[in-house]
Amino acid sequence: MPMLALIHTVATLPAVFQPLVRQALPGWSSFNILDESLLQHTIRDGALSNRTKQRLAQYVFSAADAGADAIVVTCSTLGNAVDSIASITSVPLFRIDQGMANEAVRKAQRIGVLATLPSTLEPTGTMIRNAARTADRNCIIVEKLCDGAFGRLTAGDPAAHDAMVVDGFTTLALQTELIILAQASMARALKALDHTQVPYLTSPEPGIAHVAKELAALST
């Protein structure tokens, strides 16, 4: 049975991804690697440092050495590092937000990107622009940062985080046809709404669906 490794930076994410992997890749087993400091250091530094990129690469190589036949990095903030590491890995390496970006450019022309971390806003916007270019789609990307919201969440004030996300979403919805949530943790804020003005996407489900599609294509 082939094996998928998932590298996480948030402790709650293994439980989110396990059922998605079982459903999308029933013939695969999986294991998780968790290091919250990868994200914490990027937030502290204000950007993805070379040292963090190197540490992520070590986890990727370790996962391959442990028997992984494919690897997924579930943190969007680390997306640019994943792109640079992919060319030197011995197994397929995926960033979780690729499927979300592909779906967004198929469904909409005016796409909003909502983030609670500046370090995630830039790589997510870049990925969507690249996906639009690959799909030959003339998409307009509108970015908005809910500045300070992630800090409120980590400080134990989820209500303040959720209010800031809802406010940012409402503002961005007036300018766009579809909104990308750069952090999967943002979706919880919108669940309290009876309805949203425009549809939105998060990375886990389309991300794993994309991985399953790519792996199926590689096996044929």
Describe the structure.
This protein has 220 residues and is an alpha/beta fold. It is built from ten helices and eight strands. It has helices at residues 13-24, 37-45, 50-65, 79-86, 98-107, 118-134, 149-154, 158-173, 187-190, 204-219; strands at 3-8, 29-34, 70-73, 93-95, 110-115, 140-145, 178-181, 200-201. The strands form two sheets. The chain has a four-stranded parallel β-sheet, with helices on both faces. Strands 6-5-7-8 form a four-stranded parallel β-sheet, with helices on both faces. Strand 1 (3-8), helix 1 and strand 2 (29-34) form a beta-alpha-beta unit. Helix 1 packs across helix 10 and helix 5 (98-107) packs across helix 10 (204-219). The relative contact order is 0.15.
CATH architecture of the largest domain: 3-Layer(aba) Sandwich
What does the main sheet amount to? 4 strands, parallel
The class by helix and strand makeup works out as alpha/beta
CATH class category of the largest domain: Alpha Beta
N-to-C order of helices and strands: EHEHHEHEHEHEHHEHEH
Oligomeric state of shown chains: single chain
* Unreliable segments of 5+ consecutive residues: none
- Total strands: 8
Give the CATH topology of the largest domain. Rossmann fold
Helicity, as a percent range: 40-55%
Number of helices: 10
Cα shape: globular
Strand content: 15-25%
Distance between the termini: 16 Å
What's the number of structural domains? 2
Q: What average pLDDT do the residues reach?
A: 93
Strand order of the largest sheet: 2-1-3-4
Brief summary:
The chain is an alpha/beta fold.
What are the salient characteristics of this protein?
four-stranded parallel sheet, Rossmann fold, alpha/beta, 10 helices, 2 domains, 220 residues, 17% strand
